[in-house]
Write a structure and sequence with these properties.
The complex is a heterodimer of chains A (297) and B (303).
Chain A: H1 16-20, E1 29-34, H2 43-52, E2 79-91, E3 108-119, H3 127-131, E4 137-139, E5 145-147, H4 157-161, E6 168-169, E7 176-177, H5 183-186, H6 193-197, E8 203-207, H7 208-224, E9 231-233, E10 246-250, H8 270-294
Parallel strand pairs in A: 1-10
Antiparallel strand pairs in A: 1-8, 2-3, 4-5, 6-7, 9-10
Chain B: H1 21-46, H2 50-74, H3 93-117, H4 121-147, H5 152-155, H6 161-180, H7 187-210, H8 216-219, H9 221-243, H10 248-278, H11 281-302
The chains are: A alpha+beta (297), B mainly alpha (303).
């Protein structure tokens, strides 16, 4: 590997715990989901449901969306495996035989089956956390974003604020729920249930700076093997949410997997919104005052 | 316009708002009615128009009471409403709004009750002016509330939305005054109604021009019908207000048109927001455009 050919990837994500005000804290922890080795077993979905005691998403329906009958992340589904079937010429790397992405033919095929396990991104700039009016959503010492269920009053503001469509309300309960990165396991030094259950290490858990290095190395490896579509998603501290605590290696555009291509935390525009609202409020007051001043008896 | 874009089985990316249209659309409307009515009440009090002042005070109290009921009713856990006040959090417009309401609602209440009972007149007058100071903020903070989301139709319109809501609030409060005030005192309401309607129409048009393809969500379906009705009613109300000095019946009709138009506008804006989350194109296409604009900028820098 030569320096000239390496793909630039940031080596650090913001240490968001310090910004939050934790004087001492463990390293920022997160997920790196390498979708190139996902086999679509859904063990992550099951392990998450079991550990976190999540209710089912009734009613169960066959969707016709390949093997995806989970459909989406929700208040009671915190890992979701997407399945994408594509007609696309696939060539296995030279001398490597069929690497499992092809149709099963020797060496090449024209059907590509993409699988990816989606999860809450635990954004550096988390809109859900910003807009929560009660302080129910908070930043943990691990740099993740978690709902305090005894505080949430079910206002639903976070649901509309999330640029990824992750957090959602359980109608029968009235409150919102999302991935906690298995906060209860983390404090005991355990790996989150989904990563623990993943049989191919598609879901990797650890300090985000270490995961970033692994992601960069894996991207490099795939590119050198000729997988030109490989890319990282959510890893960039210069993006609209200053990077995610959970980032991904994808084999196509993010929107193919149901992910927004360039999400932005809505509160970045909040100062401008308040300024416009203040001017509009003044306009209203002056307008009505003018109507009184010019009205005749 | 048919931009090519990729999606996951054409499913939405965002979650649609969990808010119910009648509650939160109604809240946006009633908050506007209350906030602007307080300004009319203060104007009436200051310029010796007691009937206009009373209508403003009563409309403000009724509006803010009903809007609070709608707001609490929409919570998944209504009993935990007071949790809104356990922090002071400027990054959350809903939190700031709760504090605004906590300051405004008692003032509006005291102002109206003192006027109706004739007791503590000085306290009532002071409360009336206090409510008029906070009132304009009550009408426009709701624009920040809806814009500070990932909902494309709401967020992208964040510059114009406060002006749209200010115009709509002025028109509906003036409408209430036109309906319930005698002809001798309704001249300021007639003028303000026309101003409000003009602001509402101009801000709405400007917003749809500036948000590009997302404007479709304001023009199609239920939102499109509601917003076309809102424009027609605002124009009808304006025509009525311009000649309503001569007839009580005309003032009544004109006032009703303004109030109905403003209600349609709020429900239409709410509906457009929901529609813009349901279709992934409103999420993907603008973000793709932003990415390609940024990469063109980079190319120019390095060229």
């Amino acid at each position: 590997m030569t320096a000239a050919r390496s793909i630039p990837v940031a080596t650090r994500l913001p240490q968001v715990q310090e910004e939050t005000g934790y004087p001492e804290h463990p390293p920022r922890m997160g997920f790196f989901t390498d979708t190139s080795v996902c086999i679509g077993c859904k063990a992550c979905e099951v392990a998450c449901k079991e550990w976190n005691l999540l209710p089912s998403d009734a009613p169960f329906e066959l969707t016709g969306m390949s093997f995806d009958n989970t459909e989406q992340l929700s208040g009671s589904t915190w890992r979701h495996v997407a399945f994408i079937e594509q007609r696309k010429p696939v060539k296995a790397p030279d001398g490597a035989g069929d690497q499992g992405q092809g149709s099963g033919d020797q060496g090449s095929g024209d059907l590509r089956w993409l699988m990816a396990s989606d999860v809450c991104k635990h954004c550096t700039d988390a809109a859900c956390l910003d807009v929560c009016p009660t302080g129910s959503l908070f930043r943990t010492e691990f740099g993740t974003v978690v709902v305090q269920q005894d505080i949430c009053n079910g206002c639903g503001y976070c649901v509309s604020a999330c640029p990824y469509g992750v957090i959602d309300k359980r109608e029968e309960d009235g409150r919102v729920f999302k991935c906690t990165l298995c906060y209860d396991r983390q404090v005991d030094g355990l790996t989150p249930a989904c990563a623990k259950a993943c049989p191919t290490e598609s879901i990797q858990y650890g300090p985000v700076d270490e995961l970033l290095q692994r992601a960069a190395a894996r991207l490099q490896e795939l590119r050198q093997d000729g997988v030109a579509d490989a890319r990282l998603y959510g890893h960039d501290p210069a993006d609209g949410v200053r990077g995610n605590g959970a980032f991904f290696l994808l084999l196509d555009e993010p929107e193919v997997y149901g992910l927004p291509p360039a999400p932005k935390v809505t509160t970045r525009d909040l100062p401008s919104m308040w300024r416009h609202a203040a001017v509009a409020a003044l306009t209203l007051a002056c307008g009505i005052a003018a109507a009184f001043a010019t009205a005749r008896r | 316009m048919t931009e090519e874009f990729a999606s996951y089985y054409n499913r939405r990316i965002l979650k649609p708002p969990t808010w119910r249209e009648v509650n939160i659309g109604g809240y946006l409307y009633l908050g506007g009615l209350a906030g602007a009515s307080s300004v009319f009440a203060a104007g009436g009090q200051l310029t010796g128009r007691p009937a206009l002042a009373r209508v403003g005070k009563v409309a403000a109290l009724a509006g803010i009471t009903l809007s609070l009921v709608a707001l609490v009713e929409d919570l998944g856990r209504p009993a935990r409403f007071v949790n809104m006040l356990r922090t002071f959090k400027p990054t959350s417009p809903m939190n700031m709004g709760s504090w605004l309401l906590a300051a405004y609602a008692p003032l509006a209440g005291v102002s109206a009750l003192c006027d109706l009972t004739g007791k503590l007149p000085l306290v009532g007058r002071a409360a009336c002016y206090g409510a008029a100071v906070i009132g304009p903020a009550i009408t426009t903070y709701t624009a920040v509330l809806v814009s500070d989301t990932a909902v494309p139709a709401w967020h992208e319109g964040h510059r114009e939305m406060p002006f749209l809501f200010a115009g709509s609030a002025t028109a509906t409060a003036a409408g209430a005054a036109l309906i319930a005030t005698p002809r001798s005192e309704n001249a300021p309401a007639r003028r303000a109604a026309v101003l409000g309607a003009a602001l509402e129409l101009a801000a709405g048009r400007l917003m749809r021009r500036r948000i590009g393809m997302i404007a479709e969500s304001y023009e199609r379906g239920r939102a499109g019908s509601l917003l076309r009705a809102a424009e027609a009613l605002a124009l009808a109300g304006t025509a009525g207000a311009l000649v309503a000095g001569r007839s009580r019946a005309l003032a009544l009709l004109s006032g009703a048109a303004f109030m109905a138009g403003s209600a349609c506008l709020r429900l239409g804006v709410f509906s457009a927001g929901v529609a813009s989350t349901e279709d992934p194109r409103y999420t993907v296409v603008p973000q793709r455009n932003r990415l390609s604009a940024a990469s063109q900028d980079r190319d120019r820098q390095y060229a």
